[in-house]
Design a protein that fits this description.
InterPro entries: ATPase_AAA-3, CbbQ/NirQ/NorQ/GpvN, ChlI/MoxR_AAA_lid, P-loop_NTPase. This protein is an alpha/beta fold and 335 residues long. It contains 14 helices and 11 strands. It folds into 2 domains: 226 residues, Rossmann fold (3-Layer(aba) Sandwich); 108 residues, Orthogonal Bundle (Helicase, Ruva Protein, domain 3). It is globular, with a radius of gyration of 21 Å.
Amino acid sequence: MSDPADLVREIEVLGEKLGEAKASITKRFIGQERVVDLVLSSILCGGHGLLVGLPGLGKTRLVDTLSTVLGLDGKRVQFTPDLMPADILGSEVLETGADGSRAFKFIPGPIFCQLLMADEVNRASPRTQSALLQAMQEKSVTVAGAAHALPQPFHVLATQNPIEQEGTYPLPEAQLDRFLVQIDVPYPDRDTEREILMATTGTAEAQSTRVFDAVSLMAAQQLVRQMPVGEAVVELILDLVRACRPDEPSASDIVRDNVGWGPGPRAAQALMLTVRARALLDGRLAPSAEDVAAMATPVLTHRMALTFAARARGMALSDVIDSVTAQVTRIEAAA
């Protein structure tokens, strides 16, 4: 186990480096600091992120910038209904050698990279989605019975368009659980949009610079897991996740009346990791209750489902999560 003083120094140094990375990212992806923080939190935890937003909000630009700043080999795949698993994973081809011998050779697909952008992931068929999500979980690809390890680190940032649902295959809730966080990308405010106009319509654009590489990023991911978490924060995470399950005794009326099923243990694991990353990005040495509240919606939204009646009433999962978070936080504060 690391010496506490050494751990503090390492966390402080990493915090400064992350500040440089954020500054470099925001040169090209202007504003939207919460989106940048959530994406960086996801990667610092070694996880994958699902970006949900309308076209033209800079999702592709963000992923491209992240590849540069984090020093990762990045690739982009445009998902379409006719995309097959082999188009992503790779395939074996029969190759004839100079001596006339013939043998199968594996040709790696675009998934063999360190940062994959899966653009409009819900346009691919369930079969193709499953192939991608299996690779995300197992960090390897099996083709013709042979396993092929993916590069390390390996992260997927997938995008979804929330309005054009015709011709799409929405990801099943059980598969959405593979994503560490769901990141909603909103419209920029007026001042940010003015800044974007001035920065991107001239003769030259600002360029991002590399801050990390694969080795230093993996070291940062290990350091995040060593950050201490207070007992009160651990109990708050458990209380929050369990309170979002409609069959739990601690569930409130809003959960029982509106939630079909709640988050599983993987949600608690995701919260435990992401609150550490958020604290680190904010320059703090340990997470607090504020971090739990801030990460609740990104971590829990895609791990819960509303009942049909709740959807018919226009209820939103974010409203349910906000209500439960406020209630659990008040109880913890009172205790």
